[in-house]
Amino acid sequence: MRARYGLPLKITAVGAAIGAAGLAYAAGFEARSFRLRRVAVPVLPQGARPLRVLQISDIHMVSGQRKKRAWLQSLAGLRPDFVVNTGDNLSDPEAVPELLDALGPLMGFPGVYVFGSNDYYGPKLRNPARYLVEKIQGRHGLNGNAPVVGAVHNPWEPMRDAFDEAGWLGLSNTRGHLKIDGLDIAFTGLDDPHIKRDRYAEVSGGPETGADLSIGVVHAPYLRSLDAFTRDGYPLILAGHTHGGQLCVPFYGALVTNCDLDTDRVKGLSSHASGGHRSYLHVSAGCGTNRYTPVRFACPPEATLLTLTPRD
C-alpha cells in the first residue's frame, strides 16, 4: 500500500531544515558580524571643525564573548573626539570585568553615558512573540505592564565607578559638559524610560545658554522623552534600546521597536518633531542581544561614528 504522507513529510523536513539553517545563520554568523555605521549631522556652529562621535549601545556583554570584546577594543582606532554610551552594557552579572576590558581603550577618550534596564537588572527568558503582542496592546517594559518581580540585580555600581574614574560623565537625570576642541558641548540625560526611571522635570529648561551644542541622551527612545527634548529645542538626540528590530524581514524591515517609537525610525538617523520644533534623532541598533535570544536577522550588530558638521 502506497504511503499517503510522503510529500507532506518531505515538505515538513525541508521547512525544518530551512528554519535550522536560518537559526544557525542568525546566531552563528549575523549576531557576530559587527559593523560600523557612519552618518553626518549638521548641528555645529558655523566655522567649527567637524567632530567625530562614537556611539556604542546595547552591548549586552556575556562572559566569553571574545570576538565582541576585540571588536569593541578596535573601535579606539577611530580616534573619536568623544564617546556616547547609551546603555544596556550587561546581559550577565559576571561579565563586568570583561565589559570594562572591552571598553578600556575607549575610556581613554572623553565620554558620557546613561544606563538601560539591563544595566540594573538581568534578562529573563521570554517568548519573542510577546514583543509583537505588547506592540499590539501598546504595552512596553514597565510602561503599562506589571512591575518586575524577582528580577536579578546586576552589579552596575562597579561599572559606574569605572566609567566615572575614567572621566566619563554619568547623565542619568542630570546634565554635564565636555570641552572638545574649544567647543562647549552640553549634555542632558535621562535614566531609562523603559523602566520608568526617567525624570525629565529634573533636567528641563532646554539647551544650556552659551553652549555651542546641546545633546539629549537617553537609552530607550520613548516618545515622551523625544517630545520633551524636542519641545525644549535640542538639535540632536541619541538613543539605543531597539536593537534595530533584531529579527527583521528582508526588504521590509523591523516588526517591533520594544517601545512606542515607530518602526520606520528603529535605527539610524531620522528626525523628530514636537511643539513646533524638530530635532535630529539617532537610534543605535546596538552590538549585542539578550543572552537568551542571541540571534539577529537582517539587522547586523553595529556601532555608529557620527560626524558632527557645521549647520547649513
Would you kindly provide a written description of the structure presented here, covering whatever features stand out?
This protein is an alpha/beta fold and 312 residues long. The protein is 23% helix and 23% strand. The protein has 7 helices and 12 strands. It has a 6-stranded mixed beta sheet with strand order 1-12-2-3-4-5, covered by helices on one side. It has a 6-stranded mixed beta sheet with strand order 6-7-8-9-11-10. Helix 2 packs parallel to helix 3. The longest helix has 24 residues. It is globular and about 70 Å long. It starts with 5 loop residues before the first helix and ends with a strand.
Main attributes?
312 residues, alpha/beta, six-stranded mixed beta sheet, 7 helices, 23% helix, 23% strand, globular
